[in-house]
Amino acid sequence: MPHLGDATRGRILFGGDYNPEQWPEETWHEDVRLMREAGVNSVTLGVFSWSRLEPEPGAREFGWLDTLMDLLHANGVGVVLATPTSAPPPWLGRLHPDTLPRDENGGVEWWGGRQHFSHSSATYRRYAAAITEDLAARYGGHPALTMWHINNEYCTADHGDEAAAAFRRWLRARYGTLDALNTAWGTAFWSQGYDSWDAVLPARRTHYLKNPGQVLDFRRFTSDMLLECYLAERDIVARHTPHLPVTTNFMPLFSGQDAWRWAEEEDVVSVDLYPDPRDPFGAQNGALVQDMTRSQARGPWMLMEQAAGPVNWRGVNHPKPRGLNRLWSLQAVARGADAVCYFQWRQSRQGAEKFHSGMVSHAGEHGRTFQEVKRLGAELAAIGGAVTGTHTAGDIAVLHDWHSWWAGSQEGRPSTEVDHPEILRSWHRALWEAHLATDFAHPEHDLSAYRLVVVPQLYALTDTAVENLLRYVRGGGTLVAGFLTGVADEDDRVRPGGMDARLRDLFGIRTLHEWWPLDPGESVECGGFRGTLWSEELEKTEDATTEAAYKGGELDGLPAVLRTGRAWYVSTLPEPGALRDLLTRVAAGTGIRPVLDGLPDRVEAVRRGDLLFVLNHGREPVTVEVPGTHHDLLTGTAVEDALTLGRYGAAVLRP
After folding, report:
1. Confidence class of residue 13 from pLDDT cuts 50, 70 and 90?
2. DSSP secondary-structure letter at 108?
């Protein structure tokens, strides 16, 4: 199977989305001059080029793309060639309305933007396959081609009639009979029992709360239908170029795709990452996405998109301060990226994203953005040979599952304040601030390589996942789980007792009497720290130890944090410092230590292979102790026992 190394050839890929169809041909020559100056060695072509390639049904205009492929190759720039199927041309929707998706109210999503395609439309799939086939046939042997990029940020849901027919086929394959479907969806509630497959619909608008089982399966179906679209195009290009890797770009923590399942079908796992420069937790949010993407890839991965400056889709779009683009790019490399790329190369002058930054901004080659890009390109070239293909790994696994997220985010639950991504961020942030390296894993993955497994929240767990957690602890592993874990099965059916009985036994919970969600801003005293968001009325077993108890109120004296052997259960969300201290204490008990001791606040240290990345996420200079003698690959200087980093400073140290 091809992999990212086949495209990198021992160097970090550096570049971004290139949209030359927006510019006159004379600009193309200026572009390649600046690319060479900046050290760009890879660009993605054709992401939004369908109407240029096929201006009317069946027509093909490849001449401009021929010129660009030749021009880029002559200047040493490799091409990640995209299939343009995320933005169909207007004629497709006009001539074939069945290709347009419908929202849950039945409204049409028209052309004029992007992602305006129905994943279930046979017509859309036929035209998408045709343009993909012709691209692969024409450019499969071109020396500039290094990788394929299928579609872009798959995200479209469809509630239309063709999707409804596909949904019914999907459900038949999953359940076999209407009786099994009715059981899985709990249709005895509210008189929803189905006597005909023709009556089954997507999760369209209802008068009141939708059926949770229907909504859960519709989300699964949507992820699978989009995956079918990806696989159809992937298989076409793979038939023409079996030696070249294929990818499609994930969006970070996007709820619409089961990324564990998708990653199994990609040669290269890639992601788009846009932390807010004004977010005080921007670096941690970036680290979370990077850890998750690396874990999905099981090795090096590709940062497909980031912003060189401001984006255009927040309420207020702030530029990146001097040095932050470099710092966050090196953070991605530290956490396993073998490609650092942007949307886009040259900032657009027209269209919906003309205020989204580019590597070449409106200020041009003399602007600060391009000058910083040049510096980064030179530094990535300097460290690429030492870092590509090496691994970043942690002793801690954080468990995450899209199906559990989908089930736990339904309407009609105890608290709308409980947000799965925010819970995940809180627990990962505690580990990140404790300087503890983490991977992510699916709850059914083999966990035996990890000393500590952390479950921020897994509301719904399959029997296989539950048994996997039990087996992990029995095998000597340490497990820490947060509240609302193991409440339901894979059909969103609440387990007897409000938590799986096997997990209650594991954590030392005799009875889970009641959930006590907290109002915004409300907290509970837990004997040394305050809990937020949630609390639970628990009765423990005799062999369980209360590590922290609620004080005051209805839960006075009841356990807030329980431990039985190597299994911990946290029935609230501890305030940030308390959660960090708890996880640091548990990790230390397993022998896990930070990469470096005594790191200053806002400083991150990450090992990748035999290299040590030290990153200052603060605005003030810091001195970091790094015992021994090292060579800084960024400066070419020796470092003896201590290192001084300026604002947003970074070092890449080799022993």
Report:
1. very high
2. B
**Rounded to whole angstroms, how far apart are CA atoms 468 and 490?**
15
- pLDDT tens by residue, 497-534: 999 999 999 999 999 999 999 999 999 999 899 999 99
Order across the sheet with 622-632: list the strands.
Answer: 603-608, 611-616, 650-654, 622-632, 637-645
Closest CA to 130 of 35, 10, 223, 233: 233
Please tell me the distance from the alpha carbon of residue 142 to that of residue 197, in angstroms, as a whole number. 49
**CATH numeric code, 603-654:** 2.60.40.1180
Q: Delimit the CATH 2.60.40.1180 region(s) of the chain.
A: 603-654
Predicted pLDDT at 116: 96
Where are the domain boundaries for CATH 3.20.20.80 in the chain?
A: 11-160+225-387
Cβ-based neighbours of 409, under 8 Å, separated by 6 or more = 255, 419, 420
Active site (annotated) includes residue 153: yes
Q: Which of 153, 233, 372, 604 is catalytic?
A: 153
pLDDT tens across 96-108, in order? 999 999 999 999 9
The per-residue pLDDT for 393 is 82
- At the topology level, CATH places domain 396-589 in Rossmann fold (3.40.50)
Q: How is residue 384 written in tokens?
A: 């690429």
Asked about 305 being catalytic, the answer comes back as yes
Which distant-in-sequence residues (6+ apart) come within 8 Å of 377 by Cβ?
14, 38, 39, 40
**Identified catalytic residue from 162, 233, 266, 305:** 305
For the chain, the average pLDDT equals 97
- Average pLDDT (3-20) is 94
Q: 11-160+225-387 has which CATH code?
A: 3.20.20.80
> How far does Cα 266 stand from its chain's mean position?
14
